[in-house]
Amino acid sequence: MDETLTCVCCGTEVHRDEVCFVGDQPLCRDCADEETFVCDNCGFRHWDSDNQGDDRYDLCPSCREEYFVACSECGRLIPNSEAWYDGDDDETPPYPSAPSTMTRGLMISFKICPTSVLSICACKPGIRLTICRL
Q1: Which of 15, 76, 89, 97 has the smallest C-beta neighbourhood within 10 Å, fewest atoms?
Q2: End of a domain among 70, 99, 124?
Q3: 75 exposed, middle or buried (CB, 10 Å; 0-12, 13-18, 19+)?
Q4: Which residues of the chain have pLDDT under 50?
Q5: Is 77 a member of any domain?
Q6: Do both 5 and 66 map to the same domain?
């Protein structure tokens, strides 16, 4: 039985115990480190060109679609379990947290008066305020 595989990127012969796989394609460790990422959600290795994460998450396309949504205020990715929708359906834009809750010590969203809403996006450093009249 052949104990080596050929790296699909650089052509180096790699011992079977030292090879990394992206799908069924063998890579040497150096090429795997340079050309691929490990999805923070599923833990599988994928090509860098398929990374659909942001500066906080490395995500494969299926995990990005299934488990994350972009914040409607700043565009950063939010795990579905932490997203809040301002409405009765999932059609309205997502926010990082439910109204009147604390996240990392910051109030995310609360009503100022019956006709106004104050939103604070806590996704990015700094504070972003949006005051909307209903």
Answers
A1: 89
A2: 70
A3: exposed
A4: 98-118, 125-134
A5: no
A6: yes
> Taking a C-beta distance cutoff of 8 angstroms, is the pair 18, 28 a contact?
yes
Separation of alpha carbons 110 and 20, rounded Å: 49
The helix (run of H) or strand (run of E) holding residue 84 is: strand 84-85
Distance separating alpha carbons of residues 115 and 125, to the nearest angstrom: 28
- Domain hosting 111: range is 84-134
Q: Which two tokens stand for residue 131?
A: 């005051």
Q: What is the pLDDT at residue 75?
A: 82
Q: In this structure, are strands 25-27 and 68-70 parallel, antiparallel, or unpaired?
A: unpaired
How far is CA 21 from its chain centroid? 22
Pairing of strands 13-15, 4-6: antiparallel
**Is the domain of 21 the same as that of 63?**
yes
Task: Give the CATH number of the domain where residue 42 resides.
Answer: 2.10.110
Label residue 59 left, alpha or beta by phi (over 0 means left) and psi (-120 to 50 means alpha).
Answer: beta
